[in-house]
Description:
The structure is a single chain. This protein is an alpha/beta fold. It is built from 28 helices and 25 strands. Helix 15 (about 535-540) packs parallel to helix 18 (about 565-580) and helix 20 (about 635-650) packs across helix 27. The longest helix has 18 residues, at about 335-355. It is globular. Residues about 1-255 and about 255-390 have low confidence and may be disordered. Adenosine-5'-triphosphate (ATP) binds next to strand 11 and helix 12.
Amino acid sequence: MPIKLLPHLRFLNPSVSVTGFPSMNLQPTVRTIPTFCRIFPFKLQYLGLTRINQQPQLPSVRKLSTRPFRTRPGSQSSGSDFNRTRERGRGGEVRASKSLIEDEAELSDWVSDLGSKRNNKYDDDSDFKSAGSGERRGGRERESFPMKRRRENDSGESRGRGRMNRNSANSFSRNDNPRFNRRSDGESRDDGGDFSRRKSGGIERGNGNSFRGNGNGNSFRGNGNSFRGNSNSSRGGSSYSSRGGNSNSSRGGNVSSFRGNSSSLRGNSSSFRGNSNPSRGGNSNSFRERRNERDDGGGFKKEGMQLRREAKFSEDDSDDSDVEDEDEERGKTMNGFEDLLTEEVSDVEDDDDDDDDDDGSTLRMNARKSIGLDKEDDVKSVKRSSPGNDNSYLSESRFDECAISPLSLKGIKGAGYERMTKVQEATLPVILKGKDVLAKAKTGTGKTVAFLLPAIEVVIKSPPVGRDQKRPPILVLVMCPTRELANQAATEANTLLKYHPSIGVQVVIGGTRLTLEQKRMQTNPCQILVATPGRLKDHIENTAGFATRLMGVKVLVLDEADHLLDMGFRKDIEKIIAAVPKQRQTLLFSATVSEEVRQICHIALKRDHEFISTVEEGSEETHSQVRQMHLVAPLDKQFPILYALLKEHVADNPDYKVLVFCTTAMVTRLVSELLGELKLNVREIHSRKPQSYRTRISDEFRKSKGLILVTSDVSARGVDYPDVTLVIQVGLPAEREQYIHRLGRTGRKGKEGEGILLLAPWEEFFLSSVKDLPITKASAPSVDPDTQKKVERALSHVEMKNKEAAYQAWLGYYNSNKKVGKDKCKLVELANEFSRCMGLDTPPAIPKLVLGKMGLRNVPGLRAK
Ligand SMILES: Nc1ncnc2c1ncn2[C@@H]1O[C@H](COP(=O)(O)OP(=O)(O)OP(=O)(O)O)[C@@H](O)[C@H]1O
């Protein structure tokens, strides 16, 4: 699909050439760590990989080419994976906006536990969406903390729904849950873990709950906060190696895996081989069609993505009453977040301190030449990827070259997959051998299949579940940060399982009725469970027999692992990890794996895990076929510019499919309403919408063309919308990773795409965090007076309550950003500028309580009520 460049985007300073770079050695440099700190052995493992003398790349300023867009030749970057984080870390302002919780929807699950304590100090009438303490957390609150339950009347979803009393709706009260003793539970419970939390009312800390494990058991000791993962079988360190792959310059492989050993430090430079991998683009259509096929089964949500395996997803025609209530609960649990965060941080530190598996305090780096070609591999050897261009996401290897069961191969074929993608080629042999893997691969390159396929093979090899088995074990647990992503992963699993009728998949996600999920799990036991963290924790605590079933888990997957290990989810993830057997295989996948993530991934992974990256060291984490631009324009020009950009794109691309990312849910709603008033074909999706609506819109956007989806970060990660032509990010992305994931909604499977980041002048500091990415600066399109007037008129039709909510949300979001939120007076000035941009003469008043929580009481320029 040809992407037409926006003709009015003139790149500034075309005379300025791309910054020159010293030639880069792509071999990962091993730096000896002189003396290893015993306390932080894991951190040192990863620090040992830091590239030395890397030159940061300035944002390139390029002349705008004309269509068709071509991959930048020989694009260079200073983007050492291992260095980036450190560089960013130095620019503290860039990290300042690191998200505490990026998805409000999933937060609802997370905080539901807190909510039940009924210790809310917040005003339910407030629309406050930020905990108001962003500075301390260094995170944004974004859509995450609605204090007031605001119904989404516009969708018609909210009428007639009752408030859910979670306790009464749940037929399995905690006290009904039997004491769980792992030992009594079959094959995987040889660890002697004592699961005693039910007795003391759940796993909340301070209750004296203990989840202790000896031997192979998970250890969740002390006051419940300190997760100590001891492993009998996982000593030896993780490994790093590089394997052949493709590269623009034939010098380097693009697949690397990391293996470290905690007992010694040896540096073997990775073996990079360049192999030719001609880019082929011929088979992408079939994937689109495959997606569309999936409406034949019973959907698990009335309006949702319907899954083929009818039996596994019972239809829920019921309303979303409890969905809404869960959203409401969210707003009641904001207090205590700071405390939680503090505890989480100390937990992590404790982990390091307490880990008793660090018998070696030095790092061994052992670069493997090729995992896929290891002679001792059980699997058939996998052909080398061959050089090609960055567009080539497929490898030369075929699935039938791997040790995959014939019925799975049939499923793969049915899905239209012939060759493995590079990440699949790189990870499958390793995962099939039973190793823990941390995998990094660019967005839209088939990571889901990469972890699902070997996980399915584990299920196949497991003893069949007897029909009379009361609590059949869940063998594979896939954790996803968002509901959309969980649904999508389940759909993919069902596609692959087409010829395995005895293997069931189920989804448990926030925003749906817990009781319904409980019933469904009772009537249709599954071996593969896809879940969002909060809801899974709900089930662990409230669904009879669920914890027992989880003790059957053999494979644990964290999709978007870096996000799940981020502060917002980590507590839940730790609890979930504590609830599955220690003797398991764990797979962590993401398009972004920061150094911090590597340092903390041991909370989930065995020490001898492999880190496999298909992103060549020194190359960008984004796709070269996606053209990235940024525009800087004052706030008052941004709505007209956004409109102009969209109009232009729509005019040039008959099959346009655009995602517009906004900073918060309420800003998303405002922008969506505005664009709707401007007669653009828009939909909106964010966490303040009922789940049924979200699922419906997500499904519609997946299938459609000629549509603009205005969205919050619920669509930032993982969601596989085919053929997105343009991604526009309006305002400050929460962090570098979020920018990359949002951008990754386009350019999937080697397709071309375009990304525009629209910033205000005072947001330009963000660019330093993405300076290694090929983002070119473009001048803002001139806005003619007619367009300006049109936008102003449209704004005047936007509902006042939506403007008020957007103003408050905007303030909360930027207040939680260390850089912008530092100077409160300036922040308020900017917020009031935003208010004027919405056509308001005076900024909306904000409840005093909310202002207090935001630390903005008595700041000049704010109106309190
Ligand atoms: N071997 C394959 N051949 C062709 N297409 C594939 C193959 N494996 C997966 N796909 C398709 O590639 C697309 C992207 O896959 P997926 O969503 O798993 O990407 P991802 O790497 O997880 O992206 P993200 O980082 O955004 O989560 C999907 O439409 C999927 O069906």
